[in-house]
Specification:
The complex is a heterodimer of chains A (117) and B (103). Chain A has 117 residues and is an all-beta fold. Chain A is built from no helices and 11 strands. The model of chain B has no long low-confidence stretch (mean pLDDT 96).
């Protein structure tokens, strides 16, 4: 059974860099794309970006200038970096597997990231 | 950029009743439309993909339909565990969600 599990810092100060890593267990990176999605408190879902097993990336236009997604297939993990965070970046961050006609069928449990001075 | 809208924002339904949730795209899209269920404190769960295909393990009371710009998620007989927020999604764009609560 494919599972995702992420880790990273949950409390940041403004201007710092958010860094999260998502580990893949029980599956392969091939044939899917691997996404980061966030959800501010009491708000809906926002796609951040994605990467495939070749390292090809796509990013949300609104975040492109601050986001980097990378993959390390040898360690079965992919990562998110978001520079220069502000309070507006406070959210639950999820990693997810994309495929199935564009749908996200596997999600991790999420990490709450708070940005506060 | 495609914009997804959902209606109603909140739907109050009694257990055992039928619930119909709508999702509209700002322009014609393929059938790459998915529906998710999210309960408090949990990650979203994929229910439907390809507009009408139930994901693995999803009960048959959940069904999806539609094409073009108009899509529908129907829950035929609401169970207590179905009270949640439901999101539609087309590729990298999510709708704002419909909250289904107890009437």
């Amino acid at each position: 059974q494919v599972q995702l599990q992420q880790w990273g810092a949950g409390l940041l100060k403004p201007s710092e860099t958010l860094s999260l890593t998502c580990g893949l267990f029980g599956g392969s990176f091939n044939d899917f794309y691997w996404s980061w999605i966030r959800q501010p408190p009491e708000t809906g879902l926002e796609w951040i970006g994605e990467i495939n097993h070749r390292g090809n990336t796509k990013y949300s236009p609104s975040l492109r200038s601050r986001v980097t997604i990378s993959i390390d297939t040898s360690k079965n993990q992919f990562s998110l970096r978001l520079n220069s965070v502000t309070a507006a970046d406070t959210a639950m961050y999820y990693c997810a597997r994309g495929g199935l006609g564009g749908a996200f069928d596997v999600w991790d449990q999420g990490t709450m990231v708070a940005v506060s001075s | 950029e495609i914009v997804m809208t959902q209606s109603p924002a909140t739907l109050s339904v009694s257990p055992g009743e039928r619930a119909t949730l709508s999702c509209r795209a700002s322009q014609t899209i393929s059938n790459n439309l998915a529906w998710y269920q999210q309960k408090p404190g949990q990650a979203p769960r994929l229910l439907i993909y390809g507009a009408s295909i139930r994901a693995t393990g999803v009960p048959a009371r959940f069904s999806g339909s539609g094409s073009g710009t108009e899509f529908t998620l129907t829950i035929s007989s609401l169970q207590s565990e179905d009270f949640a927020v439901y999101y539609c999604q087309q590729f990298r764009t999510f709708g704002p969600g419909t909250k289904v609560d107890i009437k």
